[in-house]
Design a protein that fits this description.
Layout lengths: L12 E6 L2 E6 L18 E6 L4 E3 L3 H8 L20 H18 L1 E4 L15 E6 L6 E2 L5 E7 L17 E8 L7 E2 L1 E2 L9 H10 L15
Parallel strand pairs: 7-11
Antiparallel strand pairs: 1-2, 2-10, 3-9, 4-6, 5-6, 8-9
Length: 223
């Protein structure tokens, strides 16, 4: 079981029941990024995502299949003491379906060139597709209080490095407070900012008969 800092979280959070399933909540803190009352300041980094650490990129259905088959270094936490023991065909099938459902719930798209609110410019479709491991668990709301920011530079694997060199290579994505956030307030994402699913993701959704968080792949996000 990994701690919040090991997962990239820079602020204390927990997950609670909401009318829409589990949601992620800011617990409150009195550090340099918050006031004496625990109010989290706009611009505070909530979680750091780094490629090769806690962020998995996907560019095709084979990429997803590799993850679902367990052929990557990044998998949801396995608490079994027999993780290296060969499993039965039934167990392998169950593991595949569990990972597929994980993808269904947590794979998202991020526009690398977006406005300050995280909404894409109309003529730009330069997107990152991927998944945090473990996922953030952010529910959808058309008035979000967080935004994604790209991080460029060298990929040195240091999840706590604030002073990365700026350069053309994407090394990660930060989850940032869009406005001040109060203690015990839920962190909310506007799924419309993910855009519509590309053709290959739609093919995956149809093949497996699943919904995705993209507006054209479910009935709860307005296009």
């Amino acid at each position: 079981r990994y701690s919040l800092p090991e997962k990239g979280w820079q602020v204390p959070v927990d997950w609670r029941a909401t009318p829409y399933g589990a949601g992620c909540f800011y617990v409150g803190s009195k550090d340099h990024d918050s006031s004496e009352s625990g109010l989290l300041k706009a611009g505070t980094v909530l979680r750091r995502g780094r490629l090769g650490v806690n962020l998995i990129p996907f560019a095709s259905v084979p990429d997803i299949d590799a993850f679902c088959l367990g052929n990557t270094d990044h998998q949801p936490t396995n608490n079994s003491n027999n993780a290296n023991v060969p499993s039965s065909k039934e167990q392998q099938d169950n593991d595949y379906l569990a990972r597929r459902d994980y993808v269904k719930d947590y794979l998202w798209g991020f526009y690398l060139n977006a406005d300050e609110q995280g909404y894409p410019f109309e003529s730009d479709d330069d997107r990152f597709f991927g998944m945090w491991v473990p996922g953030n668990g952010l529910n959808h709301n058309e008035e979000p209080n967080m935004v994604y920011r790209p991080v460029y530079g060298r990929n040195d694997g240091n999840n706590d490095n604030d002073d990365v060199d700026q350069g053309p290579k994407l090394i990660g994505i930060d989850l940032v407070a869009l406005r001040d956030i109060s203690p015990n307030e839920e962190l909310l994402d506007d799924y419309r900012r993910h855009g519509k699913a590309p053709t290959w993701l739609k093919e995956f959704a149809v093949q497996h008969n699943v919904s995705l968080v993209f507006a054209d792949c479910n009935d709860f996000v307005a296009e």
